[in-house]
Amino acid sequence: MTSLSSSRLRRSLALHLFLTPLALIWLFPLWMMVVFSTMPDNGIFSPGIELLPHGNFIDNFNNLQRDTDFVGAIIISVCVAVTYTILSVLLTSMAGWALARYQFFGKSVVVAIILGTITLPYAVVLIPQFIMVARDFKLANTWVALIVPPLFNSLGVLFMRQSFSMMPDDLFDAARVEGVKEWRIFVFVALPLARPMLAALCIILFLASWNNYLWPLLINSQPGSMTAPVALGTLIGLTKVSWGGIMAGAVMLTVPMLIVFVLLQRHFIAGIAAGAVK
Amino acid sequence: MRNRNATAYRFLTPYLLIFAIFWVWPIISSFLISFQATRTVPWRFAPGFNWGRLIGDPAFFNALKNTLLILVIQVPVMIALAMVMAVLLNSPLLKARGLYRFAFFAPVVVGEVAYSAVFRLMFSLDFGVVDKLLNSIGLPKVDWFSNVTPAMALIMIAVTWRWAGYNAIILLAGMQSIPEDVYEAATLDRVSKLKQFFYITLPLLKPVIVFCAVLSIIGTMQLFTEPFLITERGGPGGGTETLGLLLYRQGFRSLNFGYASAVAYTMAALAIAITLVQLWLTREPK
After folding, report:
1. What tens digit of pLDDT does each residue of B214-245 get?
2. Are residues A166 and A42 in the same domain?
3. A236, B113: Cβ pair inside 8 Å?
4. Is A277's pLDDT higher than 50?
5. Which homologous superfamily does the CATH classification assign to the domain defined by B58-281?
6. Nearest-CA residue of chain A relative to B14?
7. Which of B5, B97, B41 is closest to A19 using CA atoms?
């Protein structure tokens, strides 16, 4: 017995000795983001090694706000991400419900097309989307341009389809016998039952919109209409810019999401594990 | 399940409408645009114009070479690393599991711009904390931004940091769905943990690994933000230019939509070809 437990102990020790340095390396960039955001610019570009936070965050934030209207950009980002999440959850859960609970003409075609788009690079639709939204619809630099085109997502629908198809039939049949309309069954029976899956989907969709970069960079390039990542991105590479300010912006984009991640880890991981959104 | 065409399509319509307008039409349109000369007004049909240019364009072959190089090195390394993370996080011997999970999974929520900024600052010459640390343990400083090889390495390190945990989450979920009694039986038969990994975990996990590989390949094929922001528009001198960056420059800096569409279709064709080869290589033996 003693030999067994001592071998377990050795294995456990080896495991932790390997995993701890790896975990520290992985945390290092996030830690440095926080450290940089609290350092004055001349501290960031000094020869010494500084690994602990200072007290300069507010000054850095003021520098950032001087370089670009970051608060305005954050407000746009929040509003867009909230609206996008609500609309996208609605669209994907409705479509997922139809695919999970009804037999209909053309169903296998619809499923095959949705599956096919997973392997199709977004780059293929990027240029016509841009031409259509900017030139034909004249919607560049509006919230609609940020919210509507990214609404299509294939993995979210597949996730909701799976969630709804795991629910027992009798639940819905009982309501049908009573003569309840299909949309009422969806809204008042199915959606409440799917709450944990909807939570996972909401988190993933919000995050996708919050961090989206390429599309907002292209379509909303006017200073007053930029999202927060785009506004921050315009500063990277400028010669006269406050790097402490950029880091303060990076912290403001990242830390709220890290807090959400810690609080709702289970939903988060469920959403990604199901491949909910890439 | 009921056969109800009208009801089903009422639920599907909003989704399919968005799909038709913002995906189906653009896929077709992009193909058509690639056969047009788009820098004349009005655009004119010229089938060989963009594709002919593509075949003889050194900038295209440079971007293609860089993209494939990153793909061939970064994706396997990242998936192997994600596998190691998943296996170790799944170990019953692990204490303080939550902390380790946080360390590896946290990059998943970090936006491309925020992490690109941090990496750029961490790796900057002379004042970058990475070079300072390398120096303090006696290693030479590396100029990550002026030479092609370190710049490419930097892009791969950054992408691996951002996405390894994401893949580990998917792999871990796959591992946890393997029934426990398979391992119990193997342990009773005195099969070592290492053998259990190679003869049980790996084969049963194959579909999940393929899923991760396919998503990673498609993601890397379109790599844009990291070379755009970290190595400053694909620098040094186009050394980290990718197909995604070439598309951006051609489409949205030079406003040459026809040529950019040809680049986009090349990316799609490559992604689909690689995916198919992958599915074929890992197909179930009959």
Report:
1. 889 989 999 999 999 999 898 898 999 999 99
2. no
3. yes
4. no
5. MetI-like (1.10.3720.10)
6. A91
7. B97
B1 pLDDT band (50/70/90 cuts)?
Answer: low
Res. A194: pLDDT tops 70? yes
The distance of B225 to chain A (nearest Cα, Å) reads: 8
Q: Domain of residue A15: give its range.
A: 2-58
Residues of B with Cβ-Cβ distance to A97 under 8 angstroms? 11
In terms of domains, do A143 and A245 share one? Answer: yes
pTM, whole model, 2 decimals? 0.92
> Least CA distance to A47: which residue of chain B?
B127
Q: Note the ipTM here.
A: 0.90
What pLDDT, on the 0 to 100 scale, is given for residue A78? 97
Within a domain: A63: no
Nearest to B15 among A36, A92, A186 (CB): A92
Q: Is residue A217 part of a domain?
A: yes
